[in-house]
Amino acid sequence: MTRISTTGKCSKKGFTFLELAVVLFIISLFFTLAVPAFRRNYAQTDALKVASVLRELNDSSVAMKKNFDITFDLDAGKISWTGPEGKKSIDVKGLIRVDMPSRGAVREGSLKVLFGPMGAPENLDVYMKGKELVWRVSLNEMSGRVKVSTIAKK
User: Over 70: is that where the pLDDT of 154 sits?
Assistant: First the structure.
């Protein structure tokens, strides 16, 4: 039995060109929005994580009047700390060096920094390299502020 529509044309199974074009447009729009998220700058993300950890340790040590510590393992690219929530660690890709006035620029090995009841003992700069930029996370001992900035690669 053949079906005839009210317009007199036979219906065929399949998609029209317009339907396919709309679907392709929607898929291409999705990829346009999704691809930059996959290509994000991991050095920037790591710098923001380190800044968050330094801020948390400094603020918690002052507020709770307790000692907390952070260890930078430059060889393994790992940062470990003991904070109010216990021991934690993160992997940091591109960890270059840590600068402290009392120890200078530490480029290899590990460096442990103790946060006492008054906060950070001295200024601290952590450097991480990215694809095009070097990221610096700076902790100011006097104000307790943490700043993330970039430096052009040399």
Answer: no
Q: What's 41-99 look like in SS3? A: CHHHHHHHHHHHHHHHHHHHHHHHCCCEEEEEECCCCEEEEEECCEEEEEECCCEEEEE
Assigned domain for 49 exists: yes
Number of structural domains, the chain? 1
Indicate whether 97 belongs to any domain: yes
Encoded tokens for 133: 């930029």
**pLDDT tens figures, 92-132:** 988 999 999 999 999 999 999 999 999 999 999 999 998 88
Longest dimension (CA), the chain: 92
Mean pLDDT over the full length of the chain: 87
Q: Which domain holds residue 74?
A: 42-152
Assess if residue 33 is contained within a domain.
Answer: no
